[in-house]
User: Which sequence fits this backbone?
């Protein structure tokens, strides 16, 4: 069977599976729709969280990004995993004990303020919409590149699918589809990784192969990373494993970006609400462990793939006559993931750091998408990778839809506008707002506004500087009050958004890491303003006391 | 509406017990976060240049911490946290029901 045949088979099978699960586990009550009835086992929630968290960008682009960044890729790796430690230690057990449905609800109730609820609601919607637009675009691109259809067709197919299982299934449906999607995406990620590791280093475990010696070619017997440093040196790139050298991010920069991503991860509403679905605080802690463990499987494999792919690509293509280049070289040029321009007309592919002599431009997405072919794996593996990329994009999109729909139906309609609304009506509103959100996200996917790609990267800075401090202070301080919380959130997000918009660099920290400064400002303002205004009412302090205590058995 | 999980009732929970549980919780969190910051941002970022002079197998140590080691340590930290807090809470429940005399 051809790659395309396999692709249609795999994509069809997995889509049928997701819809089947959604119908089987569909939600019938508000609790089922928002928090899956709070009966999700810790392991299943961990898996769902991992799928929710790992987007099309993690699956398709991250390994490629790291392979161009070398050591600098560290800030993605520790930033997007270290946040789970903050999440587990500082937030999820307490939010679970508080036991409501959404994040703005915690902010509104803990600070006893509709203003705080509205600010939190707007932040949640803003972060989720920017994020989901990127996911729908990802779905469209994967479809377009590998199934040879228009991007628009791809986006619409994705929209219909997400619509079916998010709107019908609610959080229950989403949770169990995400469990299936995690399984698909991790298998799709690991098979090529293991095969390439075995081929290049003789080790079946990529994490070990990463630190082993190369088994074939001119560098046989040398350590893989040493080979990579030598190749980089030869081509004029900064050494792969060295940090803070010219041409790389400074120490302050890496520190600020890593911390911003960590704190931002802990403040993302679609990750936080997943922990409302388990049975109690203890299950929430275990669930955070499972989530990070499942994420770590991919995140420790990615840097290994990055190094393998980099060595492979340089060795295969550099100074190779175009006529002798492998078949995929032409194919991926057609998909515009590779660009070759024979500047000196010698018929050889010259690759290097100098823009005047470099003839090869490589897209970051090629590392994961083309790996199976570069490693000469069978066609069905290529198709499986495609299904994995779709699983990653769809699961994240569904989680974000949940945040959007619950923000509108629960936080806005039920808590602010119409407090007397019946459960039936609330569910209807929730489903309708999810449906509207799917359409809006799809439109963003088909007609991406130029700023979306950048905003997704900056969503972490915005989450770090708005949500995180207010949530942590809400648990760890009894003294911080509504004035402090609202002032902190507004100052934090306004400062960060302004710096990002105008591209300000402060103390060597660029827009990507500025969320760290915004977060510190948020903390400082919240604490100072609270000290100058009256302490929270006794009933609000009682909420803090309650979430600090273990549940009764 | 969502059910609100209440803590132990006021009769069972004396002020001192509540304080002691929260103190233990804070101590666990402080210790684990210190390790988190030291490994993730210390070994993985701030100390990466000196650590890179140490070579273990095919890895420079600083690079390994930044791209592999820190992630393993993060997983271990949450595991320790989950186990440790379960123990503290189990002990706490025993103590609280002993205090009631209905153990």
Assistant:
């Amino acid at each position: 069977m051809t790659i395309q045949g396999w692709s249609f088979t795999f994509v069809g099978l997995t889509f049928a599976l997701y819809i089947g699960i959604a119908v089987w586990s569909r939600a019938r009550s508000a609790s089922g729709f928002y928090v899956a009835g709070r009966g999700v086992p810790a392991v299943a929630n961990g898996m769902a969280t991992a799928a929710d968290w790992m987007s099309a960008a993690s699956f398709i682009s991250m390994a490629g990004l790291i392979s161009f960044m070398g050591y600098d890729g560290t800030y993605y790796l520790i930033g997007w995993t270290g946040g789970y430690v903050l999440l587990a230690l500082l937030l999820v057990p307490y939010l679970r004990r508080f036991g409501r449905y959404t994040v703005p609800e915690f902010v509104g109730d803990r600070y006893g303020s509709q203003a705080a609820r509205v600010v939190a609601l707007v932040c949640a919607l803003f972060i989720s919409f920017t994020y989901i637009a990127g996911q729908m675009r990802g779905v469209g691109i994967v479809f377009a590149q590998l199934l040879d259809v228009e991007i628009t067709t791809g986006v619409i197919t994705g929209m219909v699918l997400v619509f079916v299982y998010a709107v019908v299934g609610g959080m229950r449906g989403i949770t169990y589809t995400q469990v299936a999607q995690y399984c698909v995406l991790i298998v799709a990620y690991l098979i090529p990784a293991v095969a390439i590791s075995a081929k290049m280093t003789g080790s079946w475990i990529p994490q070990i192969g990463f630190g082993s010696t190369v088994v074939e070619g001119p560098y046989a017997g040398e350590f893989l990373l040493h080979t990579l440093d030598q190749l980089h040196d030869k081509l004029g790139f900064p050494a792969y494993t060295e940090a803070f050298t010219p041409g790389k991010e400074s120490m302050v920069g890496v520190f600020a970006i890593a911390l911003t991503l960590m704190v931002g991860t802990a403040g993302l509403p679609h990750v936080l609400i997943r922990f409302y679905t388990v049975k109690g605080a203890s299950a929430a802690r275990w669930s955070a462990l499972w989530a990070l463990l499942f994420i770590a499987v991919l995140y420790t494999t990615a840097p290994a793939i990055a190094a393998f792919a980099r060595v492979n690509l340089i060795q295969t293509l550099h100074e190779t006559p175009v006529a002798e280049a492998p078949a995929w070289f032409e194919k991926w040029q057609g998909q515009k993931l590779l660009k070759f321009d024979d500047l000196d007309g010698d018929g050889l592919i010259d690759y290097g750091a100098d823009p005047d002599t470099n003839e090869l431009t490589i897209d970051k997405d090629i590392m994961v998408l083309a790996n199976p072919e570069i490693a000469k794996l069978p066609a069905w593996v290529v198709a499986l990778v495609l299904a994995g990329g779709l699983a990653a994009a769809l699961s994240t999109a569904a989680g974000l839809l949940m945040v959007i729909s619950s923000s509108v139906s629960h936080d806005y309609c039920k808590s602010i506008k119409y407090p007397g609304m019946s459960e039936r009506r609330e569910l209807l509103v929730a489903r309708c707002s999810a449906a509207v959100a799917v359409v809006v996200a799809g439109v963003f996917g088909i007609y991406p506004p130029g700023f979306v790609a950048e905003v997704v990267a900056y969503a972490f800075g915005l989450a770090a500087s708005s949500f995180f401090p207010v949530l942590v202070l809400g648990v760890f301080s009894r003294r911080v009050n509504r004035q402090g919380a609202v002032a902190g959130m507004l100052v934090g997000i306004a400062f960060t958004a302004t710096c990002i918009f105008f591209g300000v660099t402060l103390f060597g920290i660029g827009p990507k890491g500025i969320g760290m400064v915004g977060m510190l400002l948020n903390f400082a303002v919240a604490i100072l303003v609270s000290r100058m205004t009256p302490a929270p009412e006794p009933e609000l302090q009682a909420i803090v006391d309650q979430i600090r205590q273990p549940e009764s058995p | 509406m969502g059910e609100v999980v209440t803590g132990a009732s006021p009769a069972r929970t004396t002020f001192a017990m509540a304080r002691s549980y929260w103190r233990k919780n804070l101590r666990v969190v402080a210790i684990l976060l210190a390790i988190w910051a030291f490994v993730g941002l210390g070994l993985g970022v701030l100390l990466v240049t000196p650590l890179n002079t140490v070579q273990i197998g095919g890895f420079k140590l600083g690079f390994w911490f930044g791209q592999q080691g820190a992630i393993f340590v993060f997983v271990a930290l949450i595991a320790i946290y989950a186990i440790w807090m379960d123990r503290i809470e189990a002990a706490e429940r025993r103590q609280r029901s002993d205090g009631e005399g209905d153990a």
